[in-house]
TrEMBL record, chains A, B:
This is Succinyl-diaminopimelate desuccinylase. It is an enzyme of class 3 (hydrolase). The keyword Ribosomal protein does not apply. Keywords: Hydrolase, Metal-binding. The gene is dapE. It comes from the Bacteria. Residues 169-264 form the Peptidase M20 dimerisation domain. InterPro entries: Bact_exopeptidase_dim_dom, Peptidase_M20, Peptidase_M20_dimer, Peptidase_M20A, Succinyl-DAP_deSuclase_DapE. Pfam families: M20_dimer, Peptidase_M20. It comes from Dactylosporangium darangshiense.
Amino acid sequence: MLTREVLADPVALTRALVDIESVSGNEAEIADRVEEALSATELKVERFGHTIVARTELDRPQRVVLAGHLDTVPLHDNFPSRTEDGLMWGCGTADMKAGTAIALHLAVTEPAPRHDVTYVFYDCEEVDSARNGLKILADRSPHLLTDASFAVLLEPTHGLIEGGCQGTQRVMVRTSGKRAHSARSWLGENAIHKAAPILERLQRYRERIVTIDGCEYHEGLNAVRITGGVAGNVIPDECVVEINFRFAPDRDEAAAEAHVREVFDGFDIEFVDSAPGALPGLDAPAAQELLAATGRPPRAKLGWTDVARFAVLGVPGLNFGPGDPNLAHKQDEHVELAKIVEGAEVMRRWLRGS
Amino acid sequence: MLTREVLADPVALTRALVDIESVSGNEAEIADRVEEALSATELKVERFGHTIVARTELDRPQRVVLAGHLDTVPLHDNFPSRTEDGLMWGCGTADMKAGTAIALHLAVTEPAPRHDVTYVFYDCEEVDSARNGLKILADRSPHLLTDASFAVLLEPTHGLIEGGCQGTQRVMVRTSGKRAHSARSWLGENAIHKAAPILERLQRYRERIVTIDGCEYHEGLNAVRITGGVAGNVIPDECVVEINFRFAPDRDEAAAEAHVREVFDGFDIEFVDSAPGALPGLDAPAAQELLAATGRPPRAKLGWTDVARFAVLGVPGLNFGPGDPNLAHKQDEHVELAKIVEGAEVMRRWLRGS
């Protein structure tokens, strides 16, 4: 059980959440504890699997979402937590139980925010997107999210506002040829050799850098895998280059796809995965208020986050959390206690408007 | 047991040898039968593992080698043999029991050839060269081979003289880079992109065609495999292109290596395998006699064969066998009965000198 004292202290609450093991697929216990804590408040609580939605019903003119996932990547000799010299170490400290703890702390201790708030605690963010609790909620009960005008995802940003997110596409570019014995190679057609212009175009490619709402989005078009070959004495008849395109949110998925097709014009191209980016939405009044509360300039989120799921629903959003994003999924994952305290204060100032 | 009648008929002998299963590593029975047949002759027979050497001791001014391997690639629903419409089907018919049968038939039925003859029947040609019976014999008892001035390997050539063989080298050309998250690709260095010039040089490469003793050797420099990539969201830090160089026998291994190093100048290159080619040696008097016996022009052997092992010992050699080399290792492997008869007649004419 999460006691009143623990819920009142975002650092203690972070520690308590980290010490409930919740590797993706195993969120039952942490979800029970979170539901229990929220049920003791005035919030309207609903549970869907291991995803919990808690809403203020204060008839404010505007509603905002605060969201955090409950799961972690697999443990790696980094459980339970350990605190030393102002740092808390352990699986999920940065990604993202410190952020989730801030949201839960505010849900329990801030009964009268200036905006209505929808708190969302969800499961399975670290695995297949088909299992993602926020995705499932957005698919089945979108009305619980779409009545908000703004969302904050408490993913690690090291205490800075990170606007929107990049889109990402995975693309297979293929060449084909004709097998032959390598001792009589002129009877075949070498598919690996034919991939030369694909790599050449990637090497020559100049990435676009786009500034939106003061956030600099750096794109990237990269081969992440290449495979080809049958046997040591056979001219290969196929070569596949797997490419990852990370694109700025001023392109939608169709525009991104058209761009990739243009770059690899003349080649056999298959799009195997696509997720849209999200515009930073920093011109939203609630975003401006949160920016003012941090007192620091925003930057772009370089990576894909669930902010894009809000964008698809028409809800602009940003990322703001105490952890360092570069520590996510690492064995030496940790979070600065001071960043947790500061993050909770910023969010409270914002919700109180003072 | 191989009866006298079977040994006297190269077609029946081919069938008998095909019907003794002898996938590489399982040559005990076929070697026993061959040894038994040879021991009933005047030949001097020695056995080393499943390799059998049988020599005439006629004090002729010149000695020649006739060699054939006893093993086959794995069966593939093509055992035992089946004869229909002048074709014998089955594993090992073309590669190379028809050729081996011709050598064994001559060993048993030709007591007074004009040259002394060393017959070699050996195991494990279709596997790792370390297990190759001819290689082991050449390493341990080279004197049994080096007193010959000329060798005929009865590998499938479809009844033509195929001179010498190409050399072959396997080379790894590597690029390295620096890993990074693909959402922040500019922090890394993409090793796959850096492989562009390797493929480009391969694509631009113009193969040399060299004519030696009337045989046209067509070289080939080919990527046979390419690998690179860590995960779908990671900038890859290594890419490896495996290259197979098939070179004409006017280059020795050192010259071939120097050429490959020149082509890939500036790249990290590792030679993992190298086998020399063999010059056709068609100016040897015994070769001229055999050419005359076939009455057909020679061509180059495009591929690597054990002829190169004789070349290394200073014994020029050529390939001559009834099977079609393009059927080797195929499920529908077969041999024309007429080619077996014709091959045996050519070889006999040559050995008799009439």
